[in-house]
Amino acid sequence: MDFNLGHTLTLRHTHTDTHQPASHFHRTPESGERITFLLANMASHISVFALWFLLVRLSVSGPVMTGTAVDVPSNRSDVVRAIRFAVDTYNKEITTEEYAYKTTSIDSSKVQIVAGLNFILEVNLGLTQCKKAQTTDVENCPLQYNCKKLHCHFEVMDVAWEGLTVLIQRRCYPGQREPHSSFLSL
Description:
The protein has about 190 residues and is α+β, with helices and mostly antiparallel strands. It has 2 domains: about 1-60, no CATH class; about 70-175, Nuclear Transport Factor 2, Chain: A. It is about 25% helix and about 35% strand. It contains 2 helices and 8 strands. It has helices at about 30-60, 75-95; strands spanning about 1-5, 10-15, 25, 70, 100-115, 115-130, 150-160, 165-175. The strands form 2 sheets. Strands 4-5-6-7-8 form a 5-stranded antiparallel sheet, with helices on one face. Strand 7 and strand 8 form a beta hairpin. The chain starts with a strand and ends in a 12-residue tail after the last strand. Mean pLDDT is about 75; it is low at about 1-30 and about 180-185. Belongs to the cystatin family. This is Cystatin domain-containing protein. Keywords: Disulfide bond, Membrane, Protease inhibitor, Thiol protease inhibitor, Transmembrane, Transmembrane helix. GO terms for molecular function: cysteine-type endopeptidase inhibitor activity.
């Protein structure tokens, strides 16, 4: 009986000797090193995904299904990182303002387990007194008096085991919605 898993791994079941157990498998010699690498790499990816799933599962109550967006605390460290990433990306790549925006409050934060973690964020921003070109830490910048305010919907995809974080969706509107959670300055 042959099992062919793509071009990478061929397993052959042999049962010609009565002293050999039926579960004895031989692999083709040329694939030995590659099999070890691929199995270790696959185990690493599965372990990281399982850990992320467990962390999300422990942070929410009730059953969680893969692909279902669930509410998570806005002060959770991975949520804070996702918000900072979204606001930094908005400041650097999207807005044409001379001054930087910073988070003034968070209306909601959800996480969805897909091929990584998808953070779904509703965030209020305010325009600071710091010029984008001259600041590296926008969170310490004071807001402008009577500053321009935005309400933004951000979606940030984080695939930690590949070192990939991407702002996959953003919609910002003038004005600010009343926060549903307590004020949180990042």
